[in-house]
Structure formats: C-alpha cells, structure tokens
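Need the bound structure for zinc ion, inputs here:
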Amino acid sequence: MKQKAMTKKVEVCPICSSEQSSLHINTRDYFYSKDAFSISKCQECGFLYTNPIPLNAGKYYETDEYLSHNTSSGGLISKVYSLLRKINIARKYKLVSQNSSGKTILDVGCGTGELLRYFKEKGWTTTGIEPNEKARNLAIKNSGGSVYEESYIDKLTPHSFDIITLWHVLEHVEDLNKRMVELKGLLKSGGAIIFALPNISSPDAVKYGQFWAGLDVPRHLYHFNESSFKKLVNKHGLKLTSAIPMKLDSYYVSMLSEKYMGNTLNIPAAFLNGAISNIKARKNNNYSSMIFVVRNI
Ligand SMILES: [Zn+2]
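Answer from helper R.:
Posting the output first, comments after.
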C-alpha cells in the first residue's frame, strides 16, 4: 500500500459518549499495510478505541494472508492457527451447547463456515453472516447455505435465535451500538450471545505493548477488557453472566507479536511468553482472549 490512508477522527467514546480522550498508545498495522495508527483512551470511562479510523476500512482486509487466517493454506503461522482452530471448534461446540436452550445458532463473522458445518452435522439450524465475499462463498459451500452478507443482518427474523456467537468479531464492527441493538433484537427470550474478544489488559498485551498482535489496528476498532465490555452490555440492557478464558490464544498472539517485533518465528520465545501470560492471568481471570456470555436482563 503506497498511498497514505484517509482517516476520520472518532469524536465521542462509543460507550459513554464523552468527547474527552487522551492518547493511549501509538502503534502500526504490523500485519499488512504498516500504516501508523493510535489508540485513544476515554477520559470518562477508560474505554480504549482506535482513533482515527480509516475511511475505507475494506482495503485493510484486502490481503489473501488475512483470508488465510481462515483457511489451511499459507505459512507456518497459518498452519498453527488452523490446528488450534480445529481444537477450538470442539470446545466452542461444548460451550455453546451448555449455554443454549435450543438448536438455532447465528454465527456473525462466520469466516469460511467450519464452525457452522460442525453445528449442522450435530443437527442444529445454522445461519451465518460474513462480510468477506471469498470467505462467504466458502462458508456457503462448507455449511450448506444460509450465509449472508453483513447488511442482511437487518433482514433476519427478530427473536429467532437461541444463541448468537461472535468469535473475535465485535472489535471489527464500526457501528458498535447499532450492532448491539440488532443482536439483542435477534435473540429469543432466554437466549444468549457469546462474544470472544482479545483482552487489552492481559499479561501478554502488557508485555508486548504496541507490538501486541491483539491490537491489530486498524481492523480492530475497539480494545476491550472485562470492565469496558461489561459497561457496553449493561448500556444495552444485557447482563454478562460468565467470563471464560481462551488459553490457546496467548500462544498464537505471542507468536505474531514476536514476528511484529522482528523476531520472525521465534517459537520458543512465543511459547514461553504464551505460557507465562496464562500463568499470570490465573490470578484475576485476565487471559489473552476471553469469551463472554451475555443474556437479557
Ligand atoms: Zn467513555
């Protein structure tokens, strides 16, 4: 990418609407464009958000490498990611089943649809939303249809899902509050929403600072921890009912973060730092990535 990206300033905090913010950290899109971005901290509620954000966010996803996050092709990091994802799918199935009173699932940001395929094979009714056209077409093939582009979320039947999942997706959604309202409206009475998010307060986030792969600017617009996420869901009349660690994520995130620091494929360091992060995180359930289960109050 040769041209400097056009950006727009975020005027108010997406959670509390305060106009007062300060610079939290300067970082870069180490994954793709190498463009510089900053993260602001709301002076009122402490929420961390990417600011400014690109006017054309789409171009930051226009890399086959980003799609290879979702396929088994590509380099060693993609292969490790793919292996971890296979382990994760079975775990996610267990978690979703435990938190759902029925078998109707909506997966928002379903990628290439492997999770939906797994659920479908277990007898669930599956629906997916995926903005990336290439990924969406693969998801349709993988899960046997019912996968739509992002704008279709408005057209889904209100109160029709027992469970809605967003695995590392909410941090990408520009109109955060609109999306929260939509999700709540799609949930059946007694249903649950499951969010997986990188945790900006985790020990590996603190260790790697501006190189922490969980920042992933400008694709990640928000940088949650349990406290800020709780404020967001409470604002929307929802309740956080459990916070579950994703212990494998610290290894993958540490490996990418080492790469961003210039230590390409420093697997021993990444493994050690991933393990250290998980040990430190035990103290206050503050892991590299967290799964939050949310319900109607
Ligand atoms: Zn705020």
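Comments: The longest helix spans residues 76-99. The first strand starts at residue 7 and ends at 8.
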